[in-house]
Amino acid sequence: MKRQLFLAGISLILGGMPMLAQDISSVNSVSYEWKSVPIVGGGFVDGIVFHPEAPGVRYCRTDMGGAYRWDAASNQWTPLLDWISLDESNLQGVESIAIDPQNPQNVYIACGTYTSSSNGAILCSYDGGRTFARVDVPFTMGGNENGRGNGERMMVDPQNGNIIYMGTRLHGLWRSMDKGQSWARVVSFPDVSEKFNPADRAAWGNRGSGIVCIVYDVQGTQDGRGTRDIYVAASLMGRENLFVSHDYGESWQPVEGQPVQYRPTHMVLTGDGQLVLTYGDTPGPSQMEDGGVWKYDIRKDKWTDISPVRLSDGGKAGFGYAAVSVDARNLKHLIASTHSLGGKHGYKSDEMFRTTDGGKSWKPIFKTGYEYDYSKAPYTEVAPLHWMFDIEIDPADAEHAMFTTGFGGWETFNLSAVERGEPVKWSIMSAGIEETVPLELYAPEKGARLISGIGDYGGFTHFDLNRPDPLGSHANPHFGNTNGVTGAWLKQDLIVSHRFSDPRQREFVDVLSRPAGEYPCHSRQSESQTFLCRGCCCRTSIQQRRWRGDLPYRYSATGCKNTPAG
What pLDDT, on the 0 to 100 scale, is given for residue 292? Predict the structure, then answer.
């Protein structure tokens, strides 16, 4: 009734007004072209999946930034999940990716960022990732939880593309018999759950990550029913963690003689029946204190420790192993990566080892010599080598290898150079991947086109929206998270960034730039703080602590011509 009265009132008002004829000219609409402002990487790429037969077909997954497909024509990665809405953002964390070995067009993406959320889904594509059918599943996933670099948890049967196995963190082993359209739990699979007291934060944080690896042992036979022998590894310690089925997944038994003193992280099978596993005492990327690389000869039922770094006293290694990969064309050629090795046993950082004799001897790639090309992502020049939780040898080219990091990843096309004592040359492999978390954006009226506040990597200044910041991320001081960026609109040279840290209730304010000579600069450095001048602008830091009611300030700058007032 109220709506009717309102419309009637409008009608009366218009009825009492003279109506004038007006020419209405059409206005051309402006279409917007949306694209990423390139930073390149900026987050943990925790898995790379190559198709075993089709050259150039590969996908990668991230812990909370979706999945990507390699596009050889543009020489960069193409995002596959940008269509996911904010309400469904839990699907941006990818737990695993599987490609059908018999058909590279069939790809499956297991999505779910946290096990506390119930909206996990398997995305099924039958056209190479161009379109997807969403299948909601009754189990949760943890694409951004500990153990996210383990894998792969989901694998398509190489002899029957209808069959897919999926290992979960909390809900056991699942199987699809219809190309991912429906799923049923494999009830015969052993209970691999762990019981922890959530109040014990250390134990809770280092707990296992469920079923982490699935491998099919084809043995050169053709069987339309699928693969008879299947190996599944679970992130358990102190009990059996590797299981096998010899009857197409109907029954399961633990593999005899297996190492149980640490947790599996990755597993591969060579063509001559050697199962190779990496281990750590945590799933990672949490700190590891022990681990190893072991080989299981399936035909001889024999286990061998082939760890690249072995301790004579038999004690804990002080580090673990993150991943392993085998050359599809040379069964003795493998690479393995470490986690938490830096500063121990004569190694300055984590390491990737290479063997060409099946693990009898190994050569350290980075310790022998390497070169980095940072040009595609300049900010990575100051980032340490870390989180190599997936390493891959290209099945089509053994000189081409990749490894992941917390900011993207690297690739080389001369892997064998280490055998000649020459540097292995690495370049950024993550062009097209954009996984940063923007916390604030500021577009000044003049100067830079965009200044950003970013999670983990501080922020960036883009003068060109089509290229990465050539100076890298903001530094001196470096904010892990920059929660705010703004400027004085009437004094465009003054720009301020801000970080807030919850644990100690502190605020940090960084005055990014000031015209030289206009403001007094303090030349004294405070503790470990150093600062950078760019061009004619002085970069000064103000750290404002709000703690217990007091508000002490610390000022410092370098490279400024001014001296402190007073």
Answer: 98
Helix (H) / strand (E) containing 440: strand 438-442
User: Which pTM value belongs to this model?
Assistant: 0.85
Contact 304, 289 (CB under 8 A): no
Q: For residue 327, indicate whether it is catalytic.
A: no
Is 71 a known active-site residue?
no
Tell me the two tokens of residue 551. Answer: 């508000």
**Is the pLDDT at 180 greater than 60, yes or no?**
yes
Tell the residue number behind the tokens 């992941």, with chain if given: 404
Q: What is the per-residue pLDDT for 200?
A: 80
Choosing from 223, 390, 456, 550, the catalytic residue is 456
The residue assigned the tokens 């673990």 is 320
Catalytic-labelled residue, pool 63, 157, 290, 394: 63
Cα gap 73→402, rounded to integer Å: 19
Helices (H), 256-301: none
DSSP letters, 3-53, are HHHHHHHHHHHHHTSPPPP--------------PPP--B-S-EEEEEE-SS
Is residue 192 exposed (0-12), middle (13-18) or buried (19+ Cβ within 10 Å)? buried
| Mean residue pLDDT across the chain | 85
Q: How confident is the model over 195-235, as pLDDT tens digits?
A: 877 778 777 777 899 999 999 999 877 788 999 999 999 99
Q: What is the largest CA-CA distance in the chain?
A: 100
